[in-house]
Q: What sequence folds into this?
């Protein structure tokens, strides 16, 4: 983009269908759901946020057309697994095929981690795992806000210090929009 041209324009219009990109980058997580027969599905997501400390709640914006949503309705639990830049190929693959037709575990070679409080597993080698029991759901346009009550949480020890990620070790993956991702430099700033 021509920076001289841009220096004369303070703001540019954005198609309102792209408003979400103005709120990126967003941390990438792998959402794991499972069926009553034990079939595992993995879906990348970046529209995830903490919602409450007491009770501990996490909210995920999820399209009801997704297989993940279907499994969530049958089992009422899911895990949220933030990932590092090292898992970019896994994120790309699991986001490009449907778990209805494809065994995503076999396609990626992902190893699972036993859950602590639920029956849906976590992703081994993810930065963390947050185990959630379905708390509430709210229709929101073409998505549903799925609120999960956190039942257990753990983090990769080498990536965590003083109640925070060690960014240059963790290298959390952030979604910029489309097929674009980034990570952080490790510089930390405080006011």
A:
């Amino acid at each position: 983009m021509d920076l001289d041209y841009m220096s004369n324009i303070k703001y540019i219009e954005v198609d309102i269908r792209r408003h979400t990109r103005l709120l990126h980058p967003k941390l990438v997580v792998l959402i794991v759901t499972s069926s009553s027969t034990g079939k595992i599905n993995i879906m990348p997501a970046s529209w995830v946020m903490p919602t409450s400390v007491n009770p501990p709640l996490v909210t995920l914006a999820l399209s009801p057309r997704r297989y993940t949503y279907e499994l969530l309705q049958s089992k009422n639990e899911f895990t949220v697994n933030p990932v590092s830049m090292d898992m970019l190929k896994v994120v790309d693959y699991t986001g490009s095929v449907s778990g209805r037709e494809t065994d995503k575990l076999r396609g990626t070679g992902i190893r699972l981690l036993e859950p602590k409080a639920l029956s849906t597993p976590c992703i081994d080698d993810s930065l963390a795992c947050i185990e959630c029991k379905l708390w509430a759901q709210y229709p929101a346009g073409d998505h549903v806000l799925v609120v999960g009550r956190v039942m257990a949480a753990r983090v990769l020890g080498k990536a965590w210090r003083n109640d925070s990620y060690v960014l240059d070790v963790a290298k959390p993956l952030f979604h910029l929009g489309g097929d674009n991702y980034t990570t952080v430099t490790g510089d930390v700033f405080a006011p």
